[in-house]
């Protein structure tokens, strides 16, 4: 694969005795969307969370193997996880804006990373909200609480918040599943736009959504990746019968 944004090599994740992710080696392309699909409990979210070390926060979780961005192994204990999470952002299933103003939600990260200049912060807020297709809806109410936004707007705000610290990769865990169909379609459109600038890895249970938004798809089953290929191939002519059974709704 040309232009790899991130690779895993023999990645395993354990919760105590239980192994949730088994020996996964994958390359993720730059500026593409990769969908992680598979039945409930097969390890998609665990795998996703390990990519920016969010599993560190779960007591009893243990990760072995390598996760490479360029020549940096993220899984190295010396990795600065704050800087790592600036490079690899995360958007969760439920919008989780801070209980602060719309402006402060976006400015928080850049300020934390040392940007103090008000003009610069204003520009970052405008750029991030514009990229998240939310500027027009919020430019006249930046000082209002983020919680005054609708669920769909809050999710786009969370995407804007992750963009504000200039990541190269954005991880998304079912980012549209808690939204109404119109808000969900807006988030999908946004993902399609964002891939011009960012590499996106998204967990989704929605097969149509995976087919619409992603260029590559990995099919997970019981902690393993059964098949990883171009999305068009996975959805029209998968190599593995288990993939075919899953995408055609025969199990899961
Ligand atoms: N914090 C945790 N502690 C212990 N076990 C966990 C924890 N989180 C997940 N697991 C277990 O690890 C396995 C994989 O879970 P994970 O949430 O990664 O799967 P998933 O494919 O994302 O599922 P879903 O699609 O339902 O979100 C499951 O058996 C789950 O019960």
Walk me through what this model shows.
The chain has one domain (4-247): 3-Layer(aba) Sandwich (Rossmann fold). It has helices at residues 44-50, 81-87, 102-112, 118-131, 135-138, 151-163, 181-194, 207-213, 231-236, 241-247; strands at residues 4-15, 18-29, 33-37, 61-69, 72-73, 88-91, 169-173, 199-203, 216-221, 224-230. Helix 4 (118-131) packs across helix 6 (151-163). The protein is α/β, with parallel strands linked by helices and 252 residues long. The mean pLDDT is 95. The strands form two sheets. The protein has a six-stranded mixed β-sheet, with helices on both faces. It has a four-stranded antiparallel β-sheet with strand order 2-1-4-5, covered by helices on one side. The longest helix has 14 residues, at 118-131. Helices cover 36% and strands 27% of the residues. Bound molecules: adenosine-5'-triphosphate (ATP). GO terms for molecular function: ATP binding; ATP hydrolysis activity; phosphate transmembrane transporter activity. Part of the ABC transporter complex PstSACB involved in phosphate import. Responsible for energy coupling to the transport system. Residues 6-247 form the ABC transporter domain.
């Amino acid at each position: 694969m040309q232009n790899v944004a991130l690779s895993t090599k023999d990645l395993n994740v354990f919760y105590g005795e239980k192994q949730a992710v088994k020996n996964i080696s994958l390359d993720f392309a730059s500026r593409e969307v990769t969908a992680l699909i598979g039945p409930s409990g097969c390890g998609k979210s665990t795998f996703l969370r390990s990519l920016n070390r969010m599993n560190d926060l779960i007591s009893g979780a243990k990760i072995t193997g390598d996760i490479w961005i360029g020549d940096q192994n993220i899984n190295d204990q010396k990795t600065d996880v704050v800087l790592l999470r600036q490079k690899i952002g995360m958007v969760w299933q439920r919008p989780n804006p801070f209980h602060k103003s719309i402006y402060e939600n976006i400015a928080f990260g850049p300020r934390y990373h040392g940007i103090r200049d008000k003009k610069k912060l204003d520009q970052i807020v405008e750029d991030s909200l514009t990229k998240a297709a939310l500027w027009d809806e919020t430019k006249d109410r930046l000082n209002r609480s983020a919680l005054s936004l609708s669920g769909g707007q809050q999710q786009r705000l969370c995407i804007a918040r992750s963009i504000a610290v200039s990541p190269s990769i954005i991880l998304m865990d079912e980012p549209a599943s808690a939204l109404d169909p119109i808000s969900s379609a807006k988030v999908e459109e946004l993902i399609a736009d964002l891939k011009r600038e960012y590499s996106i890895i998204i967990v989704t249970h929605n097969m149509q959504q995976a087919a619409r938004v992603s260029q590559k798809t990995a099919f997970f089953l019981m902690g393993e990746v059964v098949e990883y290929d171009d999305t068009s191939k996975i959805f029209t002519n998968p190599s593995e019968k288990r993939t075919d059974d899953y995408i055609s709704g025969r199990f899961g």
